[in-house]
Amino acid sequence: MTVKNDFTIIPEPSLRRLPLYYDFLKRLETSDIKFISCTEIAQNLGFNPIQVRKDIEYTEIIGRPKVGYNIKELKLSIKDFLGWNNSKDAFLIGAGHLGIALLGYRGFMNSGINIISAFDNDPKKIDSIFFGKKIFNVSILGQLINRMNIKLCIITVPAPSAQSIVDIAIKSGVKVIWNFAPCILNVPDTIFIKNENLTSSLAILTRKLKDDFK
Amino acid sequence: MTVKNDFTIIPEPSLRRLPLYYDFLKRLETSDIKFISCTEIAQNLGFNPIQVRKDIEYTEIIGRPKVGYNIKELKLSIKDFLGWNNSKDAFLIGAGHLGIALLGYRGFMNSGINIISAFDNDPKKIDSIFFGKKIFNVSILGQLINRMNIKLCIITVPAPSAQSIVDIAIKSGVKVIWNFAPCILNVPDTIFIKNENLTSSLAILTRKLKDDFK
Fold it and tell me: How far off is chain A from B151, nearest CA to CA, in Å?
């Protein structure tokens, strides 16, 4: 899959690596180093230097010959390319264990999204607060998406409820969906959906175990 | 990335789709349908029929011309190929919100792994039970991996602790690692590691939001 806009087409694996470079550059902030080369980044993270250079060039930064990139500029360039400069508000639907784990996930800080509220249908959870975010009744989901102009929803409800929730979200104006429910969701072509199917990842691991460690 | 053994090389995207076919076939169990074609599977899941046929052929099942596959046999063939017939014992390290979410994740049932215990270093969590699984002190992790001959570990500790935990696990005999900590781990070539970096997934979504919904 590739993610494209008018200017740049970047393959998904490159896009997935950019945050890893960003994390690495952030860790260098406290050091005295001012410049870094692709080879050094690659060596530290165990990647191929040519691949690192290609990935970084998507952000349109220009390095200096024999010196490499100014670390501060490179960090900003990646951050800007990923859209992490202006954080986007998001709703999370399904305040089960996974939902609450995501509400508290520190990796999201400074990563372009701000989960402002969560939703559930369990009366015991409604109105409670986790990690500073209030859980609302899912019955007002559509209304709040609309009123607050929310474009991104994170779906952590059980599989049988996922399609109907997504239908409401899209009808109310959501354009991008991050789906953790273990099922295939039908969405119009205009909607961007990213599935995180843990069972699919598991297939890779169990197949490996089957092959090598019978 | 491809996952290979002596007989079959299957690309990772194909391997990731097989559990989706399996889930779909399971949902047909209660119906009267006995046979199904690749085209029907593809239509129901929104995939390309040629791709579905190719994926399924990796499991070495043979379909019947004009009839398709016997659903029961196809389900068994996928299950066997994925190594989901004999569940493998696993340890989970890090009983934070994400760790506990994974302990209770129902998608793992019948999916080839059985998380038998979890580990943490927080005295308040040690000896408590979540979803029927006991939390042990991480200080005895190596000892228990060794004694119980555990080959798979799931890492849900914070990034700064991940490398030292993984070093202990590998030294004690673990061969396959499912890493949810948002960092790059150094492991020997003989160890298979699958990273689930949520920040990387997020990059795909935020880039999309930046492109299309400024």
Answer: 8
